[in-house]
Amino acid sequence: MLRNLFRRLIKLLLWFAAGSALLVLALRWIDPPGTALMAERKVQSWVDGESIDLQRTWRPWKELPDSLKIAVIAAEDQKFAEHWGFDVTAIRQALEHNAEGGSLRGASTISQQVAKNLFLWSGRSWPRKALEAWFTGLIELLWPKQRILEVYLNSVEWGDGVFGAEAAARHHFKVGAPYLSRTQASLLAAVLPNPRAWSASRPGPHVQRRAAWIRQQSYQLGGSHYLSQLSWQLPPWWPEWAPRS
Fold first, then answer.
1. Which of the chain's termini has less CB crowding within 10 Å, N or C?
2. Which of 171, 163, 187, 180 is nearest to 58 (CA)?
3. Running DSSP on this structure, what letter comes out for residue 42?
4. Cα 82–238–81 angle (5° rounding)?
5. What's this model's pTM, rounded to 2 decimal places?
6. Integer CA distances (angstroms), 10 to 7, 13, 132, 211, in order
7. Distance (Å, rounded) from C-alpha 173 to C-alpha 98?
């Protein structure tokens, strides 16, 4: 009986692995209509008895301003172009900091945040972390960096019910995402650690200082030149018969 149970478990894991890989591969070209985090926020609003209108409009890569792309990288993941989903140095530093008893510090890369927001629930349990690592690996393997950042900017939370750059730009600054100024882009990036408590349109002193630091870091990273490293190049193992863009 144990042998049969083990065999069924292995089959289940294989089906999950194959199904999740096909899903991630499909989202290489298909823009996700929503995210697990959006569903979670909606369900939570029903539980709390407080209605929430989810705001989200997809903007393709070419319509997203370079100032916002580089600001988010400067704020959230400055090694985004170099790593394969995990910033080992940042993880080690966060573990050491947390072990010393300070306030909890995270070390999630943009790729990890995409995996978490798109497919998983909130929380810090080990099963969720294991699934986050699995989906992060698939995303890095099957998507180019530009696609990862494109999905991130169209899915990240920027306020209660506000998801994606277009909704955030209109909610905070009454403009479309392509028309964000460099300062507005840095303010949006500055609130990402706590978007439901901090406001890009009504920034406090901490958010203003953080936005100024982000603008400086964006310049030091190379601005639009940095973004040229995030090519749509496909991995070397990609078959000749498969779609190339």
1. N
2. 163
3. H
4. 10
5. 0.89
6. 5, 5, 20, 48
7. 36
Tokens representing 18 are: 């194959």
Describe the crossing of helices 66-76 and 182-190 by its angle, rounded to 10 degrees: 30
CATH 3.40.630.30 describes domain 34-227: no
Encoded tokens for 77: 């993941």
Q: Does the structure show a pLDDT above 70 at 45?
A: yes
SS3 at position 41: helix
Count of positions (residues) in the chain: 245
Q: Which two tokens stand for residue 223?
A: 């601005």
- How far is it, in rounded angstroms, from Cα 110 to Cα 88? 14
pLDDT in tens, 54-66: 999 999 999 999 9
Percent of the chain with pLDDT strictly greater than 70: 89
Give which of 161, 153, 141, 140 is closest to 60, Cα–Cα: 153
Taking only the tens place, the pLDDT of each residue in 158-217 is 999 999 999 999 999 999 999 999 999 999 999 999 999 999 999 999 999 999 999 999
Q: Where in the chain are the domains?
A: 34-227
